[in-house]
Design a protein that fits this description.
This protein is an alpha/beta fold. It is built from 10 helices and 8 strands. Strands 7-5-6-4-1-2-3-8 form an 8-stranded mixed β-sheet, sandwiched between helices.
């Protein structure tokens, strides 16, 4: 299997058939053996019925449906888990991403040896209230991650199969897959300018709240990537420093009380500062210890309730 195309969707009944036909034409014209995987993220319209009809007509189409809406990251997580292609390409279902980009993205992975090729919608057909926050968001992410991509939000990306099998995507972290992959050692990340079309059907699922979630997620990724397997190094180090500082204050006050007899040590604010430092230091140290135990013995909780699966040769 040369290629797996993963398409997460939510209420995109008008565009699914056209997108499937477009992808089929492009892949057949370029002699690409492919599978098209639709992940229905709990659609409330007739999207699933449209997909069922497509699968009856085309064996390259496969799909799974969530019982409820979990979000794009969950859809990609499940799609990556079942992807068989040497190259995995993700794209949105709203026809704003062009399937004509598929051959070039595929070649940039296979022939150039890149781990990830991220699309860059240099010319966007979106309203200003969507473009401006996106620019600020991308600038902040570049600064935090050190990855020089213009458009982390672009849904059109290509990956080596090895990459998607070795990363976890959850929360709102789908836009940070290049960051997650880099921390896992996949550092051949490049960018390709891609065509961006105006939305043809329906309405955008965009909401301003995703930027708040995105900000919190990038902080989480930076922490988990560095300390996820060794939280004791973070909490334990800070806790130890606080405890030493508090103990030093207490030792100084005790020395002054015994040998200098100048004042009652409990009357000074410094006493309470030292006591607080020792308490916080102990708590942070224990937090690191417990987090280390959870990290070493925890289980993967990214389990999503799947309602239907069709088009696969074997039960997943």
């Amino acid at each position: 299997m040369n290629l797996t195309i993963v398409v997460p969707l939510l209420n995109e009944e008008e565009s699914i058939t056209e997108l499937s036909s477009w992808i089929k034409t492009v892949c057949n014209n370029n002699n690409l053996l492919y599978e098209l995987l639709f992940i229905d993220d709990g659609s409330s319209d007739s999207s699933w019925r449209v997909i069922e009809k497509l699968i009856k007509e085309d064996s390259s189409v496969k799909a799974l449906k969530f019982r409820r809406n979990y979000g794009k990251s969950a859809a990609l997580h499940e799609g990556f888990a079942v992807a068989n292609g040497d190259v995995v390409i993700t794209m949105d279902a709203d026809l704003q991403d062009s399937p004509e980009e598929i051959p070039a993205l595929y070649k940039m992975i296979v022939e150039e040896g890149n781990d990830i090729v991220s699309g860059w919608k240099k010319k966007r057909h979106d309203p200003i209230n969507k473009r401006l926050p996106s620019k600020l968001f991308n600038r902040f992410t570049r600064w935090m991650s050190g990855i020089k991509l213009h458009d982390f939000n672009c849904g059109l990306k290509a990956y080596k199969n090895e990459v998607v099998k070795n990363i976890e995507v959850y929360g709102e972290m789908h836009r940070y897959i290049p960051v997650i992959a880099k921390w896992e050692g996949f550092d051949k990340i490049v960018e390709k300018e891609v065509i961006h079309h105006a939305r043809k059907y329906g309405k955008t699922k965009f909401g301003m709240e995703r930027y708040l979630k995105g900000f919190l997620d990038i902080i989480s990724i930076m922490f988990v990537s560095k300390f996820g397997k060794r939280p004791m190094h973070f909490f334990g180090a800070i806790g130890t420093l606080l405890f030493i500082a508090g103990f030093s204050i207490a030792f100084y006050l005790a020395y002054a009380k015994v040998f200098m007899a100048e004042y009652n040590m409990t009357d000074r604010p410094l006493f309470f500062l030292g006591l607080l430092s020792m308490i916080l230091g102990t708590q942070l140290f224990m937090t690191g210890f417990l987090a280390d135990l959870v990290s070493r013995n925890g289980v993967n909780k990214n389990k999503y309730s799947i309602d239907k699966i069709i088009g696969f040769d074997k039960k997943l």
